[in-house]
Amino acid sequence: MLCRTVLAALSAFGGAVHAMPQFSNTGPSTGGSGPYTADYSTTDALPRHTLYYPKDIPEGLRLPVLIWGEGGCAADGLQFLGFLNEVASHGFFIVASGAPNGSGQTTSEWMTEAIDWVTSDEAKAAHPYIESSRIAAAGQSCGGVEAYDMVPDERVVSIGIFNSGLMQPARSEAVAPTVKKPIFYFIGGSADIAYANAERDWALLPADTPRWKGNLAVGHSGTYRELDGGAFGVAGTRFLQWTLRGDTEAAEFFTGGEAEAAGWAVESGSLDKIDVEPLE
């Protein structure tokens, strides 16, 4: 598995490092709009990460897992506070790279470290509601580049690319054709610095790969600063509800015209291949 430093990952955007937004505790949050008010926490087992999950978990509720990579590969697990609380409030357990208000840069190895932990006996003992058989890897900008490194990991069942794409054509040509699991792109339109890279990656995906690409004309920073992550919070949650929880109502956002009605410009392919048993 290829692991890149933040400098190499930032070069995925044409070397325009100065144009990469550095978020700081973005997104006002009330704990999310879902049925389970969420908050963040930490664990000594993962000192370089931040956990998000519901404060009160009803007996019998299983929480699929999102492994999240930060924008700019910045090691601050609170960069997407509102967005990640929104996702968690709908019944997900999230491990975000970076400690709360941490500093420095992450690599994709941090994602693998998180996956190793959520699938361990230690994690199951501490958080028995984790559904470690259903894991998605996703990230924004540089974090999305890191998420691509999770494609070969058989423990990951779906990939989310937020305002991101691989820079070098050779890298796109090496990685995109290997993607077989569902992959969803959430891009900020032609003004997004990652737009061209995402479009190239998209064009190289296999025809039989379940895939969806939405462009919302808001630029590289998306809507993460809005309450609960705004439109990206809605779309990102629906992606996980479908691919991890098997929620057919959430699938309608992508297959029934709801995304288009919300302003997304959409392309998709082979979505009929997504067949996930509902998880209550």
From TrEMBL:
Signal peptide region: 1-19
The name this protein goes by in its record: Alpha/beta-hydrolase
Organism lineage string: Eukaryota, Fungi, Dikarya, Ascomycota, Pezizomycotina
Organism of provenance: Parascedosporium putredinis
Membrane spanning stretches: none
Keywords, ordered alphabetically: Signal
InterPro entries on file: AB_hydrolase_fold (IPR029058)
